[in-house]
């Protein structure tokens, strides 16, 4: 009698299938949606001058703050809800639903006849956008071979810079074609359209084989891997896939049990601190530059230059996460961001403001790239999107608070605002180091309670 072939661990199967056309196509598909999300998230900073002119809003008014806050508030609720749902029903269903809803609600905002309805439309848009973050990064982490995973997760985050460039360029172009009270509606409508292309492209992506295995759907997991093999021109081993040991259905409470408790709490503080500082500065930066006397076209051109400064930050982060590791890369970028906030405070000329804000843009987006590479590798498969949803929900909580804090930039309390933001970056750096785990070159944990080596051992 011939012995049955030994079951192959899923990581071994994915590593044998190698890096090829499937992963690059998945990066392009998720990246397109991520760029579209960046456009939607940053949109109100560019649209607010026109909306204020159309509805007679005063600078720094409660309505203006609500408009900047609504998208983030929706993302707070959406990140937690969609992340939990994706671990329950699978990645693909949420992968498609959130993008479709984002397009619908984004377009509705362009036709809103009142500020109240516009705030509601932006909240619902944010609710949909909140689901793309945990699902996209889980999908990417679960399909890419171990040796390339960190680099690809940074590559995916780098599409944020593309979205920033597109929304700044679009706002600049529309400002030349229409008066501000009319241009903002075109801006909201056109910014929603890339999501349609992303939705159509996503229809051909299978569900994550890791998620399928955890839910006992072995045949579908194998079929998903066979699609990867065909796309990459490789062969899937004939042996069956090693299914994870049976375990009780994981609940969000498991994020705060055992060894995950400390890790989840520290990650939440990192996401909160980085988000409060980043959005506190950049959601109000167009209005701050406008208040300094720049005309609207110059504001958009300056924002475009700051977006271009993000690209080398991502490129260096993609190299460093595989060269020196996720944790030291993240801590280093956060420390530079804290220093950069003070350099921005000391800038006394328009040229110095541009240089220091470009340096901040470089450092902060490099930090985001390292954080997005690090976080999904710290959660086990049954809790990966739940964990991503929770920590990104903490970031959205900070995003809700950031417009109120960032308004200090417009009221002349620049020192207080930037000192607070620098403190947030420093605290985030300390928490990231305290996690004590390096995931570079390590396989993803598959079960709740999977041991993860401490101190990078």
UniProtKB/TrEMBL annotation:
Database matches in CDD domains: MFS_SV2_like (cd17316)
Transmembrane segments: 26-46, 66-86, 93-113, 119-140, 152-174, 186-205, 265-286, 298-321, 330-347, 353-375, 387-410, 416-435
GO cellular component entries: membrane
All residue ranges annotated as the Major facilitator superfamily (MFS) profile domain in the record: 26-440
An MF annotation (GO) of this entry: transmembrane transporter activity
Highest taxon in the source lineage: Bacteria
Protein name (database record): Putative MFS transporter
Pfam families named among the record's database cross-references: Sugar_tr
Gene3D superfamilies for this protein: MFS general substrate transporter like domains
Main location: membrane
Organism expressing this protein natively: Deinococcus budaensis
Coiled coil: none
The entry's keywords: Membrane, Transmembrane, Transmembrane helix, Transport
Xref: SUPFAM superfamilies: MFS general substrate transporter
Topology in the lipid bilayer: Multi-pass membrane protein
Compartments it resides in: Membrane
């Amino acid at each position: 009698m011939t012995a049955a072939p030994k079951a192959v661990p899923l990581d071994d199967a994915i590593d044998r299938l190698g890096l090829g056309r499937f992963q690059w196509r998945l990066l392009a598909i998720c990246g397109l949606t991520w760029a579209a999300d960046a456009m939607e998230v940053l949109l109100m900073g560019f649209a607010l001058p026109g909306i204020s002119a159309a509805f007679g809003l005063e600078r720094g008014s409660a309505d203006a703050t609500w408009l900047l806050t609504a998208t983030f508030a929706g993302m707070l609720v959406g990140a937690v809800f969609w992340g939990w749902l994706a671990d329950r029903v699978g990645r693909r269903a949420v992968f498609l639903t959130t993008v479709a809803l984002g397009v619908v609600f984004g377009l509705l905002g362009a036709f809103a006849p009142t500020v109240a309805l516009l705030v509601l439309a932006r909240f619902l848009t944010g609710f949909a956008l909140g689901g793309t973050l945990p699902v996209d990064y889980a999908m990417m982490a679960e399909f890419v071979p171990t040796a390339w995973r960190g680099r690809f997760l940074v590559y995916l985050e780098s599409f944020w810079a593309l979205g920033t460039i597109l929304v700044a360029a679009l706002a600049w172009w529309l400002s030349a074609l229409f008066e501000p009270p009319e241009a903002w509606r075109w801006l909201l409508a056109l910014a929603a359209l890339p999501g349609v292309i992303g939705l159509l492209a996503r229809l051909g992506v299978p569900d994550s084989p890791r998620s399928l295995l955890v839910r006992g759907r072995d045949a579908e997991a194998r079929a998903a891997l066979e699609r990867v093999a065909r796309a990459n021109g490789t062969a899937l081993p004939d042996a069956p896939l090693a299914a994870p040991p049976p375990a009780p259905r994981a609940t969000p409470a498991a994020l705060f049990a055992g060894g995950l408790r400390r890790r989840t709490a520290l990650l939440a503080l990192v996401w909160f601190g980085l988000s409060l500082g980043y959005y506190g500065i950049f959601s109000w930066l167009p209005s701050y530059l406008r208040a300094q006397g720049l005309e609207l076209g110059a504001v958009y051109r300056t924002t475009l230059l700051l977006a271009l400064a993000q690209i080398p930050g991502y490129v260096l982060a993609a190299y460093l996460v595989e060269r020196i590791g996720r944790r030291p890369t993240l801590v280093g970028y956060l420390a530079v961001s804290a220093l950069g906030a003070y350099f921005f405070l000391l800038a006394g000329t328009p040229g110095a403001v541009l240089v220091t804000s470009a340096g901040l843009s470089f450092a902060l987006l490099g930090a985001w790239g390292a954080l997005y590479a690090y976080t999904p590798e710290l959660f086990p498969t049954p809790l990966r999107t739940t964990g991503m949803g929770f920590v990104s929900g903490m970031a959205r909580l900070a995003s809700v608070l950031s417009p109120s804090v960032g308004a200090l930039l417009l009221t002349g309390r620049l020192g207080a605002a930037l000192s607070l933001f620098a403190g947030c970056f420093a605290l985030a750096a300390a928490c990231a180091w305290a996690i004590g785990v390096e995931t570079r070159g390590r396989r993803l944990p598959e079960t709740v309670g999977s041991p993860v080596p401490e101190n990078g051992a």
